[in-house]
Design brief:
It is a single chain. The protein is an alpha+beta fold. The chain has two helices and eight strands. Strand 7 and strand 8 form a beta hairpin.
């Protein structure tokens, strides 16, 4: 199962303070929009998203079809196929991708400890 590149999406109280902190750890801005209260930071292949006032909890995030540079992979498992496979394994979903759709889509599941996992495909 290819879930795609991994990042952690952090729910932060103050975007500027969090950005300054992670810059001290060697992260640099990779994407995002401060005016919309979100940034993507990168250190090597490690990617973190900083999101202020967008969701209540930190989220484990996977992006099918992308590498850690947000470049499209030639070979990847479409999100609808991932969803179908996980459903067949009995995984419960908080949100689902439309199985009849094409292109970008997402679904959310929650692990046994309550950690949300977002699988968010931006391509297709």
């Amino acid at each position: 199962m290819q879930l795609g590149t991994f990042s952690i999406s952090l729910s932060v109280k103050d975007l500027n303070s969090s950005e300054a902190f992670y810059e001290k750890l060697g992260f640099t801005k990779f994407g995002g929009d401060k005016s919309q209260n979100w940034l993507i930071l990168k250190n090597g292949d490690t990617v973190i998203g900083l999101f202020q006032d967008m969701f209540p909890d930190n989220i484990l995030t996977f992006n099918p079809g992308w590498n850690s540079n947000a470049e499209t992979l030639e070979d990847y498992t479409d999100i609808r196929d991932l969803q179908k496979e996980l459903k067949a394994k009995g995984v419960e979903f908080s949100t689902e991708a439309d199985p009849d759709s094409e292109g970008p889509a997402s679904f959310t599941i929650v692990d046994p400890d309550g950690n949300p996992i977002l699988v968010d495909q931006h391509i297709g």
